[in-house]
Every structure is written in C-alpha cells, then in structure tokens.
Amino acid sequence: MDKLLIQGGLPLSGEIAISGAKNAALPVLCASLLAPETLHLSNVPRLKDVSTMLRLIEQMGVAITREGVDGVLLNSLGLNNPLAPYDMVKTMRASILVLGPLLARHGEARVSLPGGCAIGARPVEQHIKGLQAMGARIHVEHGYIHAKSGAGGLRGAHIVTDMVTVTGTENLMMAAVLAEGETIIENAAREPEVVDLANCLISMGARISGAGSDKIRIHGVARLHGASHSIMADRIETGTYLCAAAATGGSIRLTRTSAACLDAVVDKLLDAGCDITAERSAITLKAPRRLKAVSIRTSPYPAFPTDMQAQFMAINCVAEGSAVIRETIFENRFMHAVELIRLGADIKIDASNAMVTGVERLEGATVMATDLRASASLVIAGLVAQGETLIERIYHLDRGYERMEEKLGQLGAQVRRLR
Ligand code: EPU
C-alpha cells in the first residue's frame, strides 16, 4: 500500500490549478444513465472514486470514451444490466447514486445496500422513502435493494426529507426528471454540487427549478437528450490547499476555482488572520506568521462543511489559542484527532466536540489515514511538523485529491510517494 513521506517545515508558495469536484462528478456521471444519447463531460477529475464510478456504469452497459486530460464521453444507449454489486458499493458509497437514474430510465435496479463507514453509519432510508413516494416498489433482500418502478413508471410526489441529505437529494432529483408530473423535494440539500447536477440535467432537457434552495421543483419529461457539461471546481480541494498554505505560513494562488461557494471557509481563514483576495476564477492567500485558533461548527451548506472539519482541526493544532470544533453531520468524524495527537497536538474529544489547544510545534511521526478528509488533515499537519512524517494508507487520499503530491511539490513542499 502506498505511503506519503513528507519533510515538514517549509512554507507553501506558488500557484496550482484546482481540479473538477469529486462530489459533483460522481452524480453527474450517474446522470448519463438517464438519456440514450451521449453526455460529453469536461473538467472530470482523475480520481479513484471517478474510475470506480466509471467501471460501475460501464458494467451496466454504458459506453465510455476518455477524451484528452479531463474529458469523458458517456453513452448509455446499451444500458442492459441495472446492477450495482456489493464489491463495488463497498468501496464507494456514492454508488447508491445509480439507484434513482436506473429506476427512472430502466424501470428496475438492484443496488447493494452500503454498509457502515469509517465516519458514521450513513443509512440511505431517505433515498428509499423518497423513491417509494414516487411509486417505486422496493424491498431489501440478501443485502441488496431491489427496486421496480411498476408499469406506468415513476410518478411525481411531494417529498419532505427528514434531514438534509446531499446524495439523497441528488438521487431523488435524478429519479424525478423522468417521472410523470411534478415532484417537489423539500428540506433539499443546497450544496453547490446539487446545483451543478441540476445544471447538467437541465442541459439534457430536464425541467428543474429551485436547485440551490431547500425546495426543488422538478417537472418530469418523457425523455432526456445528449448534452455537454463542465464539472464545477472542487471547493473542498480548494479549501484544503488554502488550509495547507495557511498552516505553513505560506502564500499561494489557486486558479480554475473561485471563492463563490466557500464563504464559510474563507470567513474562518480571515478570522485566523489570513489575507485572502478573490478573483473571478482564482483565489490568493497570504498567511500570517502564526494563525489564531478558530472555532467551527459543521452544518449543511451554506454553513461550514463537514468535509473541511479535519483540515481546520489540523490548522488549529499549531495556531495561537484554543478552539472548539463541533461536528454535527457525522457521528464518528474525529478519527484524525488521535493521529494528530501522535504528532504532538493537544486535542480533547468529548462526544461531538473537540477542544484543540494550539502548540508551538508538531513533530513528524508515522501516522495512519482513516478516511479521505482525515488524510488531508494529516498531510497538512505533516507539512507543518518538524522532520519527517510518514502517512500510511493514502489510498484514501487518492479517492478525492488529484495528484496531490505533485501539486504540493509545485508549491515547494517536499513530499514523496513510497510504493
Ligand atoms: N442520513 C441519514 N439517512 C439518509 C441519508 C443521510 O440518516 O437516508 C444522514 C447521514 O448519516 C449523515 C447526514 O444524514 O449523518 C448527512 O449525510 P448526506 O446524505 O448528506 O451525506 P452523503 O450524501 O452520503 C455527501 C458527500 C460527503 C459529504 C456529505 C455531507 C458525496 C459523494 N459525498 O455524502 O463527502 O461529507 O455529503 O456534506 O457527495 C467526502 O467527500 O469526503 C465526503 C464524505
């Protein structure tokens, strides 16, 4: 298993380009299941999760052609196998995103029920309840969700989800675009990735309004057609590099991204003492000599994202003062704390709160990545720590960060992948 060796203590400086968003690309790839014509995507990040999703839909009968560095053409005219097997779902929970599109277009789907995961139980009952409200007949047998839409196909419904769920909203929106009549999703996720998916679906002929608000209206159409769509920039990758520069006292410029969807993160970095300049498609950050600790509380968009919690824990580890980090989305998303403590951090966990008191310096050690964003926080800590930090199990990192060691290298960091 690959490891990352980081020689810490160097401030990041320079410019890199941000990749397309993983959490926008995954649902948009599934949207290709909805039309029998070609969906032409650009700015698709080269990530493990993206290749897993491509393999999954390919075995369903979707024809896939890579184009250049970040283009993909998908054609699902030959869709014939509406099955998401356990072996694939267990490696990537986002596989559940095929359920809505398969039901809508193919009238049937068999999708392995995702199990628990490192950051929480993450059930999918909201996806199932919403689809049932649209008339789907669903039962779970031998670990698989068996779903059928019935002879007349899905029909529009008024759905109020019990909690804000990102992939739940995306799944229901994709099912509703081909359903008979109008669907209203209330308490919908407002995440920018939901909007990116809606924009892609609209360019395929879907009738959707309200994406980006908590009430989305979808008027079902008989069929969708081919389209071209460029995946939005990855706001979490953007935030991660901003944190890495901030923690190391660096100065960086990120291009092919914007601060538009990052208000909560940018506000906290400003509170920490960073200087940030936002351009139309670039962000520049200049860090102070030492950051001030900042407290955060994760919540659905537009509030502070849970996917940036671990990175902020890392920067607080070396900031001046103390901060409280409150995780409200996932029940077990502090696994990185014990690893950060191995590097010398002062962190006390009490249920969903972490109290972090900044220390003057961290010291390099061997640590283990437990999930994607936890890995990112260990990279940030490793960049700050004195001496060498060896991060094990970085396959987690490869799921969501494109060529991370290469990009960090461009910013002057000493990072090496050990195979
Ligand atoms: N939930 C339920 N039942 C459901 C659905 C969700 O109880 O039917 C709960 C979850 O257990 C969780 C909360 O609701 O406690 C929110 O979960 P959500 O469904 O919004 O998460 P998700 O859609 O599975 C997406 C991202 C995650 C990100 C979360 C929250 C994708 C592919 N994944 O997950 O991204 O953390 O939204 O913003 O979009 C990551 O990129 O590292 C990552 C984990």
From TrEMBL:
Provide GO CC annotations from the record: cytoplasm
* Residues at which phosphoenolpyruvate binds: K22, N23
Name the source's superkingdom: Bacteria
Which keywords describe this protein according to UniProt?
Cell cycle, Cell division, Cell shape, Cell wall biogenesis/degradation, Cytoplasm, Peptidoglycan synthesis, Pyruvate, Transferase
Return the EC number.
2.5.1.7
Q: Describe the function of this protein.
A: Cell wall formation. Adds enolpyruvyl to UDP-N-acetylglucosamine.
Kindly provide the name given to this protein in its UniProt entry: UDP-N-acetylglucosamine 1-carboxyvinyltransferase
Q: What is the lineage of its organism?
A: Bacteria, Pseudomonadati, Pseudomonadota, Betaproteobacteria, Candidatus Accumulibacter
